[in-house]
Each structure stands twice: as structure tokens, then as C-alpha cells.
């Protein structure tokens, strides 16, 4: 990469992670990488009055634009700047680095095909807000984008539909490396990766392959609380999904979780995000009731909706909770170590390095 041909710019969404990514990229490239300055401000009527002082340097350049899109404000801020970069100042190519994507879960299917096993049901009455968000980014000028742990493959599908090159930043190796440092050598036979719902099965399998252990799963839509058994699914439904996943992901050791299978085990529970933490904590408490020895919880995105502390931290069933820094946690969302932060910057920097070279 020739640094003079690339310009780095950042929005206000989690700027600290952006600086970490550039610091990691510097080490890989061997050249100084810094964000060009942007003057952020608003008019009295709250409209944007942001401007880029060195705008004349942008023409015919590749621009790496960083923004964690975890609010409507940050999405609109990104659109405002991306439009100016591409259509006003003449950027040749724009690479969007978006650790978190607003509307990431709002990808309802209009219909379900018989050969689909992703656990979704058709919801044609819901608005496809994720698809709309990807279209907005395309229209604003994005040519290529990097996103950490999408909720589903719909994000990549929509990006491809609109002509955006898509890169998933996968936290699996990051999680697997940490998990393996926590587990004693004489306890490795007790380890299983646990997917609390079918939607996380692929993420669980990725980690299980790295750790070399089986995968257990349940169906989130099937209740596994109170005094009821953890096994509340039709055997035919379970076997069909297991057979599909074994073939789809080339991994054989997939089992539906029962109380006998988790008793005395060390479970690595994985989700793409923590919202309120209510469902995860309820699941964790049931697993502990069934005799799980240790329960480690890994999540890429910490959204933390109102009430999260009471659900996730108070009387937590988890041995440890680990989460990446795709979304900034300000002081009021700090926990004194109950949530352990791990940086996903190296994964973003590595992918950026490959793209720019």
C-alpha cells in the first residue's frame, strides 16, 4: 500500500476502536496510519454542519471510512460524510469499516423454502430494515465493507445484491484462544461449545473446530425454563437439523442438549450479541441447575438494553463473560470486571491489510 493513495477518516461511533485498528494496521504495513481530521458540529436546528478541512486531497483516492453504526444518529452521520466523499469530493473507492450494523437483526423473510434450516419463519408483514440500511450505504458511495459477526447471512446476501464486496470479521478464533487458556489440560474432555438457539449453530461449530470438541444446541423458541426438561423438541425436527448442519458445515459432533449431556461439563456458550441478557441468563441458570461445572459466555456485540444489569450481572450463572469492543461501553455501563472486554481490532486490521495490499 502506498499511504499517499489511501485516506483514513472516522465518524464518532466508537472512535477508540477505530484508533486501535489503525495502530494494528501500522504494524502490518510498516507505515504511519492516521485519521484525517473532520470538524464535527451541528447547526442550531440540529442539522449537521460537519465538514472535512482537507477535502481537496480526496479526489481519486481510496478512502477507508470507519464508523460503528449502533444508532440512527451514527448511520445518518456516516451517510452524510460518505455522500460528500464519493459524489462531492470524488473519492475513487470507499471501504466502509462498520464493526456494528444498525438494524442487523431486522431481516425478515418473505417466504420460507422447504430446504432452509435456519430456524426462521416467514414474516412478510415486517419491514426489511437491514436490506434498506445496506441500500442506503450503497447509495451513499460504499464499494466494500467490513462488519463483525453479522446476525445472519442476510447481510452478505444484501451487500452482494447491491454490488458491495462484503467481509465478515469473525471473532471465533479470538474466543477460542481465550477459552483454551481458561481450560486445564486435564479438563479438556469435559469441554463442549453450547449454542442456545439454532441461529448460533454455525458460530458454535466454528469455535468447536478450533477447540476440537463437540457442539450442543437447543431451540430458543422452545421454552426450557421452570421445571420442564431441556428437551422440548420433536426428535424428527432435531435429527433433520443435525443432519443438515453436519453436511453444511462438515462437522459431525452435533447433539441436542439434555440434562445428562451437560451435567459435570464445561460449556462455552456463544451468541452474536447481548441485548438485555435475560434469555441468556435464564438459559444459564437452567444449565447450572442441570449440573454444569463451568459456564463461559462469549458475545461479539454488547448492546445492553435497559434492565441488562439486573438480568446479566445480578446472581449471574456465568463463570466468566467475555465480549468484544464493537460498541463503546461508557462509565455507566462498566461492571468492575463482570464483563471482560477483548479487542477485535487485530481481526479488522488483518482484513484491511489484505484488502489494501
The Cα radius of gyration reads 22 Å
CATH topology (fold) name of the largest domain: Rossmann fold
The number of distinct helices, counting runs of at least 4 residues, comes to: 11
Mean pLDDT: 91
The geometry reads as globular
Estimate percent helicity.
25-40%
What structural class results from the helix and strand content? alpha/beta
Using DSSP, what is the number of strands? 12
Ranges where pLDDT stays below 50 over 5 or more residues in a row are: 222-231
Total domain units: 2
- The helix/strand series, from N terminus to C terminus, equals EHEHEHEHEHEHEHEHEHEHEEH
How many angstroms does the end-to-end distance come to?
5 Å
Question: How can the largest sheet be summarized?
Answer: 7 strands, parallel
Strand order of the largest sheet: 8-7-6-9-10-11-12
In percent terms, what proportion of residues is strand?
A: 15-25%
Main CATH class of the largest domain: Alpha Beta
The CATH architecture of the largest domain would be: 3-Layer(aba) Sandwich
